[in-house]
Design a protein that fits this description.
This protein is of the alpha+beta class. About 50% of the residues lie in helices and about 10% in strands. The strands form four sheets. It has a five-stranded mixed beta sheet. A three-stranded antiparallel beta sheet has the order 4-12-9. The chain binds protoporphyrin IX containing FE (HEM). The site of protoporphyrin IX containing FE has 25 residues, from helix 13 and helix 18.
């Protein structure tokens, strides 16, 4: 029973909440160190279970728990995302996943390699001799999302999309941490009006693009693919289905990649030795999708970055019916939380876990690592549908930066993350680009 598991109760719960609001990442480590690998807590009617044991992750992702819904924090995005892959459930989700997945196989995503390089090179050319890394890669990732989804330059509509996404995210973070979030949804606060306005702006642009493309079919971008998919019985996606997936792919895809890229590049900027070794690995070879995927040091740098600074710092599930997870009874509706930030920094599996050391992925020290001990893209049937797209994008943009110039940090060199919708850099990361 989850109620017999250790966890903060009474005055301990009040202290835990204070700790959580002060430092949400440190809280994840503290919870495990204080209570162990399975921790239960209760806030009013809502039960929580935090898991830290890879066998539990495997059982949740692949056992009966695989039928669970996403936890409620993700589902709060439903107003903006509709019933796209992130927030959809049941048969609706199954159908969407079946129709969207073929566009994200390792082979299908290769077609975007040229766009990944082109947008990175354009961003670097515009930046000149210095830039703040997070701002620069947010712009690059946004343009990559537009190019791969719509295959065109959005012109004036780019600023509308960019602004709507930013307003949406800011609202969401404010909402998570404000007491106003407890007000019923129909109470019209100023923040909610802004949020609704942002969703309406985004809808206008996306429905316009769908109508334009239906009038003039063609292209091999994601929008064209979403419009062309058919069920076994010949049924296509409705405009609403396409709108939900386009916005979901945008939201799920661009900020996650941008945050990760900022951490990858910052980690390289403070390690000139690594930059030189990567430069040697990546120069003088044609950078095809296969070459990018097989470059060992590049792969290790990306994996180490996802281990330490994975954008999904917390993940989770909500079982739709009572669940037996390796002998633990979890009632339906419990929020099963997977504190990925701390999970990937567990010294029992990753030696010296708070140190960025890509070599650990190459020197055999992780041989025998549990299959579910490293899950930056989640797992089971709801694993990130964009994972091959993301890994290729990260590899291509990182390669473009490394080949462009040597990066020198213009900050004190410390790298700290801040939990936002994704994990973001907590401070600016200015760098100087020194031509090789
Ligand atoms: C570094 C980049 C990324 C990371 C670390 C990441 C991570 C994740 C994680 C942890 C999940 C939840 C998995 C689970 O619940 O088990 C997820 C879901 C998802 N991701 Fe990603 N993601 C990234 C990039 C992308 C990109 C580029 C796209 C699309 C172009 C994308 C689209 C999605 C979608 C649609 C889902 C929901 C899948 C479903 O439930 O069927 N992600 N991602």
């Amino acid at each position: 029973m989850t109620s017999t598991l250790p966890g903060p109760r009474g005055i301990g719960l009040a202290r835990a909440l204070r700790r959580f609001s002060r430092d949400r990442l440190g809280f994840q480590l503290w919870l495990r160190e204080t209570y162990g690998d399975r921790v239960a807590a209760r806030l009013g009617p809502i039960r929580f279970v935090f898991l830290y044991d890879p066998d539990d992750y495997e059982a949740l992702y692949t056992g009966p728990g695989r039928l669970s819904k996403r936890h409620r924090v993700v589902r709060m995005h439903a107003e903006a995302l509709g019933e796209g892959l992130l927030t959809g459930e049941g048969e609706h989700w199954k159908r969407h996943r079946r129709l969207v997945s073929p566009s994200f196989t390792p082979t299908a995503v290769q077609q975007y390699t040229a766009a990944f390089f082109a947008e990175a090179e354009r961003g670097l050319a515009q930046a000149g001799s210095s830039a703040e890394l997070h701002t620069l890669v947010l712009d690059i990732a946004m343009r990559i999302a537009v190019a791969s989804l719509f295959g065109l330059d959005l012109g004036d509509r780019f600023a509308i999309v960019e602004n709507a996404l930013k307003t949406g995210q800011d609202h969401f973070v404010a909402y998570q941490t404000s007491p106003k979030a407890l007000l019923p949804k129909w109470v019209p606060t100023a923040a909610r009006r802004r949020y609704r306005g942002a969703i309406d702006d985004l809808d206008r642009v996306v429905y316009e693009l769908i109508a334009e493309r239906r009038a003039r079919p063609g292209g091999d971008d994601l929008l064209a693919r979403l419009l062309a998919v058919r069920d076994e019985d010949g049924q296509a996606f409705s405009d609403r289905d396409v709108r939900d997936e386009v916005i979901t792919l945008f939201v799920a895809g661009h900020e996650t990649s941008a945050s990760t890229l900022a951490f990858v590049l910052a980690s390289l900027a403070v390690r000139p030795d690594l930059q030189d070794r990567l430069y040697d690995e990546l120069s003088g070879v044609p950078l095809t999708a296969t070459a990018l995927r097989e470059a060992p040091l590049l792969k290790a740098v990306l994996e180490e970055s996802l281990r330490m600074y994975g954008p999904a710092w917390m993940s989770g599930r909500e079982p739709v019916e009572d669940l037996d997870l390796r002998g633990m009874h979890i009632p339906a509706g419990t929020q099963i939380l997977l504190p990925l930030w701390a999970y990937h920094r567990d010294a029992r599996r990753f030696d010296d876990p708070h140190t960025f050391r890509p070599e650990r992925w190459m020197d055999g020290s992780l041989a025998g690592l549990h299959r579910y001990a490293f899950v930056p893209f989640g797992g089971g049937r709801r694993v990130c549908v964009g994972n091959h797209f993301a890994m290729l994008e990260l590899a291509a943009v990182t390669a473009a930066f490394v080949r462009h110039a040597r990066m020198e940090p213009m900050w004190d060199g410390a790298i700290r993350g801040q939990p936002h919708v994704t994990l973001r850099p907590a401070h600016p990361l200015p760098v100087r680009f020194v031509p090789r």
